[in-house]
């Protein structure tokens, strides 16, 4: 199971290893390439960018996996960007959303759901206008 450096450090601390032993263990596995945050971020993004927004992936990596923000941005700059508007279209299709027949309550509900998933308001509105 692949882990980030921060996840490994946290797991060792939970097992009540001394901080010095934890740092030595992390340095040891890093020296052999067993823990590589850049590789982890690249794989994580490539596996999820067709289902999740960039913002949502960044938040997961930053807050759940403990990856530095600058590393996340660096990897994103190297990768081809995903078409977030296409992701929104797929979401609307999955939810059987029809802009022409949807009432205001349904529209607001769908917009709020997409915003919680990390999509920009600009992209959400543009795609929803296409659906009308």
Could you walk me through the main structural features you see in this protein, from its secondary elements to its overall organization?
The model has no long low-confidence stretch (mean pLDDT 93). The protein is mainly α and 132 residues long. It has helices spanning 5-14, 19-31, 37-48, 54-64, 69-78, 84-94, 104-116, 121-130.
Determine the structural class based on helices, strands and strand pairing: mainly alpha
Q: Which residue ranges are poorly predicted, with pLDDT under 50 across at least 5 consecutive positions?
A: none
Q: For the residues shown, what is the average pLDDT? A: 93
> What's the total helix number?
8
Q: What's the story with the biggest beta sheet?
A: none
The portion of residues forming beta strands comes to under 5%
Helix content: 55-70%
* Rg over C-alpha atoms, rounded to the nearest angstrom: 19 Å
Shape: elongated
Oligomer: single chain
H/E series: HHHHHHHH
Total E-strand runs: 0
> What is the end-to-end distance?
45 Å
Brief sketch in words of this structure:
It is built from eight helices and no strands. With 132 residues, it is an all-alpha fold. The chain has helices at residues 5-14, 19-31, 37-48, 54-64, 69-78, 84-94, 104-116, 121-130.
List keywords for this structure.
single chain, 8 helices, 132 residues, mainly alpha
Annotate the secondary structure layout.
Elements: H1 5-14, H2 19-31, H3 37-48, H4 54-64, H5 69-78, H6 84-94, H7 104-116, H8 121-130
Helix pairs in contact: 1-2, 3-5, 6-8
């Amino acid at each position: 199971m692949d882990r980030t450096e921060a996840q490994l450090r946290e797991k060792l601390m939970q097992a009540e290893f001394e901080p010095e032993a934890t740092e030595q263990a992390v340095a040891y596995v890093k020296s052999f390439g067993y823990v590589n945050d850049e590789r982890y971020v690249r794989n994580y993004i490539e596996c999820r960018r067709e289902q999740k927004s960039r913002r949502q992936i960044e938040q997961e990596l930053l807050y759940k996996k403990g990856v530095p923000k600058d590393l996340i941005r660096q990897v994103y700059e190297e990768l081809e960007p995903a078409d977030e508007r296409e992701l929104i279209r797929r979401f609307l299709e999955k939810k059987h959303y029809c802009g022409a027949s949807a009432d205001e309550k349904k529209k607001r509900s769908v917009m709020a759901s997409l915003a919680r998933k990390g999509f920009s308001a600009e992209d959400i509105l543009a795609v929803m206008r296409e659906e009308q």
